[in-house]
Amino acid sequence: MEFLTRSILCRDGTPLQLRRASPSDAAALLRLLRQTAAETEFLLREPEEIAMSEAEEAVFLSARAAHPGTLMLVADRGGEVVGLASLVPVSAFLRCRHRCELSIALLRDIWGRGVGRAMMETLLEVAAETGYEQAELEVDVRNTAARALYESLGFREIGRRPHSMKFLDGRYTDDILMVRELAAPCRGRRP
Q1: pLDDT mean across residues, the chain
Q2: Are 100 and 191 in contact (CB under 8 A)?
Q3: 106 has which bridge partners?
Q4: Rounded CA separation 2/70 (Å)
Q5: What is the pLDDT of residues 170-182, one digit of tens each?
Q6: Secondary structure of 87-116 in the HEC alphabet?
Q7: CA–CA gap between residue 94 and residue 183 (Å, rounded)
């Protein structure tokens, strides 16, 4: 999937680059994922579960870059990766190829600055251009800021998954499943 680097300004005026993740980002992305997992319970993994080696992460990023229906998008603040957002197909099966799934992880110090919105808007634009007809995501029921962002981008709640995550201390949390229809169906064009 083709993607050209974009420059954006945070609400506080900080310049960022939105660009495709590359294998050379492996170490930075592993640091980002470990840090974001430690900063919030809203993500799927505990920090110690991010156990890929740098070489394994580079191979993973290469494979993602080679897939025509996938985009791994990083937010780069002067050489520091501060966010990762991904667009991936829900399934390779023909009956599901019209659907994609979006996800995002941002360093806590970048929350509320418009970076998440810019990244999600970019993914939605690319998804529609690629021929996807529906974007899907999951959000922790407690993450009201993210839910408000997704709703403002046209996502709607379609259900809840109870006890979707169980924390080490025995607590549970639910997920909200959200979808957004994209452009009118593109007959014959599939990612």
Answers
A1: 93
A2: yes
A3: 83
A4: 10
A5: 999 999 999 999 9
A6: EEECCCCHHHCCEEEEEEEECHHHCCCCHH
A7: 19
